[in-house]
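Before the break, one more example. Copy the sequence into your notebook; we will annotate it together after we see the structure.
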Amino acid sequence: MKTILITGIEPFDNQAVNPSWEIARQLQRRQFGDAQVATCRLPCVFGLAAERLIEAVVVHRPLLVLALGQAGGRSKVSLERVAINIDDARIPDNHGEQPIDRPIISGGPAAYFSTLPLKAMVQAMVKAGVPAEVSQTAGTFVCNHIMYGLLHFLARADWPVRGGFIHVPYLPSQAAAHPGAPSMATATVLAGLEAAIMAALNTERDIAVTGGAVS
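Here is what the structure looks like once it is written out:
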């Protein structure tokens, strides 16, 4: 059976939950056409997170990889366009590491672009009533590290597989502790991801619609 690999990240920065994993685990064994979802919980740790993701890719040999992460402060589900080859941590990871201006892959390309049909996926999510966008930055913390490590591996994979990273907003329970911060219910994000997954499976070449940013 064909596989879709969806990953989430453990809680970090003194949070009790991470919406990326709360959402990913609810998709475990979900069927999309002739493909079934497998999930993996990644540590919020530089180096180890990318290693665990690559191990899961090797085990499952998926046709599609969606790595999810938390982006507190964002109001939309953000499909990341690009990962850059730098770790520059504002806060320590869950092992207390806080790299500054360190390449993820020494001598690696400056950046990798997502290989997902981002515009088609965003359009499908919006049509499903879920706020979504193409994002131009995955940050410089563990989420960007994961995305870069994944795409570096996939660029060298010997089988066809597309992948990328998706940031999700806080859950309402998290936003309650951050007055003014936007949030999104798990059910809403799930509905959007279901639409996005179907769009990714059914779109060979991305659609040509705007998804850029002014700043």
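The helical segments are 19-26, 48-60, 118-127, 142-154, 172-175, 186-202. The longest helix spans residues 186-202. Try to locate both features in your own notes.
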